[in-house]
Description:
mainly alpha
Amino acid sequence: MSITEQTDKMMADAGTLHEEQVVGLSPPSLAGEDFGWHLDRAPEAFAFIGCGNAARGITHAIHLPRFDLWMRAILCKMHAFWRN
């Protein structure tokens, strides 16, 4: 499976959980993750997932002292990835 096919599959699976929250493809990024080694061995796609909830006051960005995460968001994303 190509990276494009894997990305399309991941986006479709994510949309089955909370379609209104699936933003779509982001512009290319120079994120500092090292997944190239994995891509040579298995089909993968890189995703940025949100973990905030403004209604609950969980709005601070990662690497800030007041950062918190909304665990339900993480669990939903894990479910989508697991299905993939």
